[in-house]
Amino acid sequence: MESYVEYSEEVMEAKKKGLAIVALESTIISHGMPYPQNVQTAREVEDIIRSKGAVPATIAILNGKIKIGLSHEELEYLGQASNVIKASRRDIPYILASKKDGATTVAATMICAEIADIPVFVTGGIGGVHRNAEVTMDISADLEELSETNVAVVCAGAKSILDIGLTLEYLETKGVPVLGYGTDVLPAFYTRTSPYSVNYKVESPEETAELLKAKWDLGLKGGVVIANPIPEGDALDESEMARIIERALKEAEEQGIKGKEATPFLLGKVKELTGGKSLTANIALVKHNAYIGAEVAVQYTKLSRVETF
Q1: How far is CA 90 from CA 63, 123, 132, 176, in A?
Q2: What are 96-107's pLDDT values in tens digits?
Q3: Which of 25, 76, 145, 295 is catalytic?
Q4: Which of 3, 35, 265, 269 is the most exposed place for a label (fewest CB within 10 A)?
Q5: Which of 159, 269, 271, 277 is catalytic?
Q6: Is residue 271 annotated as a catalytic residue, yes or no?
């Protein structure tokens, strides 16, 4: 396995020193935001994690290698390249074997983070069960990965373009805890609330880290969703977003856009229909998740050190 993985100097040094490390995905750079906001946001998110005493590890596949931690040049490349494959679990072997480039989704980032022994991962929002999935069977691989892979995912809830109720039902079936960070209600990415409750509310990084440790100490396989609402000042109106998303979904259906192409299309359409406000909200929520994720990672690392000694 080691022949497929490369660590940045910063991440390698952090591992030697036993420092907290936070995994970051790369699809948000190559497929989620336009240039140059994508690269600028990626660098700012990494700096936020450093400011909280942890080390960022942005993950991607470049020239057939899983890169755990990216250089400034590699971030810049991902932000502008047009031939980067959107990589989920099924795509990793092909990209590695053909020595191509891949930007890791939530599912692929979780896999790579577990390989690198990084238990906390920060992203924007998780994928889930798409609307009309009872007909299309369009269900994100993120959910299956959460049931299998021991990585906690700090996010602003499920993307609001999804069927959030069915997403929660799927996670319940798979035994994945959904925690609300300071909230009883599941946030819906651009908005702080949704009609759905979380499983448990947590109030601090310490409480969250204790739960993660208890789960994995018992050998209970799988991840945890840590749903952290977008800051109030950056949140969009829930009813307005519902109308915009319905319109975007209708356009996607009319154009026959489905599968891997659906989410980028829908997010792009939502950005257009909100006059760019959704992109501003997306950047704000990712940064806020980075603060919380770094704090949780630091606390989890402290607990692990205590056990070691």
Answers
A1: 18, 20, 23, 21
A2: 999 999 999 999
A3: 25
A4: 3
A5: 159
A6: no
Q: Name residue, tokens 């950056």.
A: 234
Please give the model's pTM, rounded to 2 decimal places: 0.94
Torsion of CA 125, 246, 190, 193, to 10 degrees: -100
Share of the chain above pLDDT 70, in %: 98
> Hey, what domains does the chain have and what are their CATH numbers?
2-308 (3.40.1790.10)
What confidence tier does 159 reach under pLDDT thresholds 50, 70, 90?
A: confident
Find where tokens 């035994």 sit: 175
Tell me what the mean pLDDT of segment 146-172 comes to. 94
Q: How many CB atoms lie within 10 A of CB 245?
A: 22
Task: Provide the 10 A C-beta neighbour count for residue 120.
Answer: 30
25 is known as an active-site residue: yes
Cis before 56? omega within 30: no
CA gap 67, 61 in Å, rounded:
6
β partners of residue 7: 68
Residue type, 96: L
> Across residues 81-88, what is the average pLDDT?
94
Contact 29, 42 (CB under 8 A): yes
